[in-house]
Amino acid sequence: MSSKKVESNPGGRMNRRSFIKGVFAAGSTLGLPPGVFGAAQRLESVSANDKVNLACVGIGNRGGDILKALNDTGLVNIVALCDTEIGAKHTTAALESHPGAARFQDFREMFDKMGGQFDAVSVGIPDHAHFAVTMLAMSERKNVYVEKPLAHSFRQIELLMAAEKRHKVACQMGNQGHSEANYFQFKAWTEAGIIKNVTKITAFMNSPRRWHGMVVTDYAPAQPIPELMDWDCWIATALEHPFNSTYLNGDWRSWYDFGNGALGDWGAHIFDTAHEFLHLGLPHEVDPVLLEGHNPFIFPQASTIAFKFPARGKMPPVELSWYDGVKNLPPLPPGFDVSVDPNMPAPSAGTIDTKVHPPGKVIYGDGLTFKGGSHASTLEIIPSAASKDLKFPDVPQTTSNHFLNFVRACRGEEKCRSHFGVAGPLCQAMALGIVCQRVNAKLEFDVAHKRITNHGVANDLLHGPPPRKEWEQYYRL
Questions:
Q1: What is the DSSP letter of 23?
Q2: Which of 176, 196, 230 is the last residue of a domain?
Q3: What pTM did the predictor assign?
Q4: Is the peptide bond before 465 cis (omega within 30 degrees of 0)?
Q5: C-alpha distances in angstroms, 88 versus 1, 28, 192?
Q6: Which of 112, 211, 284, 339 has its CB 3.0 to 4.6 Å from that of 254, i.e. a possible disulfide?
Q7: Residue 31 predicted with pLDDT over 60
Q8: Does 94 share its domain with 146?
Q9: Domain that holds residue 142
Q10: What separation in angstroms does the CA of 252 have from each of 125, 174, 199, 428, 475?
Q11: Beta-carbon count within 10 A of 313 CB
């Protein structure tokens, strides 16, 4: 695989490497028009209806879903497509749908050659690679939509939150339920005092995951790098690994070095509104009550993790217990109906396990118990008789879904509901749970100074791996 140096431009961007193979430049193996990779020609200017010019990093699998949803708002122009496997089967739908968009394999080259021609960036790539693209986008005053979880390590999230404040651009973490019925109901019910004095939350995701049943004693062995793959750019800020197809197309979720497991994948969909509207912040203690199949490379086969959040003003301490694993079922109160919400999306490359129960939560408040699901699923009071004398507030209707909310924020019409100031602490709490899974030890966390005080290895894991030389710059933007 050949490489070349891209010289820094007059605007002062740091040098970046281009990993585009010569065969790509000609488009010969993909049946694409000559010159579409790294196209440097000036695109047409923004149309009169003030559409947002959008560059998409990650255009297959979930990235393709994000691209389509943003495009469906009718308020964006897709001007650039970027993917480390551009031209592979899972990217063809996006390529065919937007034949006029410039195409890149390395996001750094996209910024170098087209940075002045787009207003916003979507980031739909593996968890470990979110950080570099998002930091670069914000540093160049681009609005950014990044899929959850926000980043791969506690430190990366901290830097992204600070950058959002510094650069003052529209930032949205992909967390669809944050713009749908659950969001507005939870907000209204807490403001009305129906949900109050919560002391306990049970959250669970018991559907099968990719790593369930895997037997792993080492990282995957080296394989030849496919011609359509820019492996160095795919690895990004993660530790160096030889290529292996085992890591691709969502299977990266299984590995600590690339993914965030069931907690990082689904926690944001299940207890995000509780985290925001109960002002949970960061826990002072995280305890691995159960880790089945603890492994230094992949996530456990089952986990029960207890997060203890301190009192906040007049609100009492909260213990949030997380359950994952097909057989690691949580205790549920009488009257908890385990039927599947038809609006709940299935796990990526999987199904909701209807033999057990769908992902969800139980919230124990002052005299009331609430049953909840995932994403936009609304809360129910159980037993229902407990709600007969309650006066419920009016719950506003959704004015814009999560994608339209972001696009309108880019246009200055709305504020992102899941901006990094909201999404960051949620993801940092989950990051502490993932560190707990890795070290299989109880963690004591100093909330004020954001450090683990009783476990040196765990505290080091908050920082993530030291970035490879060419990727250090993103930690300084």
A1: H
A2: 176
A3: 0.88
A4: no
A5: 17, 14, 51
A6: 211
A7: no
A8: yes
A9: 22-176
A10: 10, 19, 35, 20, 23
A11: 5
Q: Specify the CATH number for the domain of residue 166.
A: 3.40.50.720
**Structure tokens belonging to residue 403:** 């994608």
C-alpha to C-alpha distance for 240 and 362, rounded to whole angstroms: 41
Structure tokens at 252: 């990266």
pLDDT tens, 413-437?
A: 999 999 999 999 999 999 999 999 9
Same domain, 91 and 183: no
d(CA 333, CA 369): 9
- Rg of the chain in Å (alpha carbons): 22
CATH number of the structural domain spanning residue 226 = 3.30.360
Structure tokens at 437: 């899974």
Judge whether 325 lies within some domain. yes
* Alpha-helix residue ranges (DSSP H) falling in 208-348: 231-235, 261-270, 272-277
Q: What strands, in cross-sheet order, belong to the sheet with 52-57? A: 102-104, 76-82, 52-57, 120-123, 143-147, 171-174
Q: Are residues 167 and 186 in the same domain?
A: no
Per DSSP, helices labelled H in 258-349 are 261-270, 272-277
**Do residues 330 and 455 both lie within one domain?**
yes
Quick one: angle between helices 130-139 and 107-114, nearest 10?
10
Candidates 445, 464, 447; CA nearest to 455 is 445
Q: For residue 36, what are the contacts with CB-CB under 8 A and spacing of at least 6? A: 27, 102, 103
Number of domains into which the chain is organized:
2
- 62 neighbors 176 (Cβ within 8 angstroms): no
What is d(CA 58, CA 414) in angstroms, rounded to the nearest whole number? Answer: 25
Q: Is the same domain home to 136 and 69?
A: yes
CA atoms within 13 A on the CB side of 167: 22
CA-to-CA distance for 392 and 140, rounded, in angstroms? 45
Q: 336 falls in which pLDDT band (50, 70, 90)?
A: confident
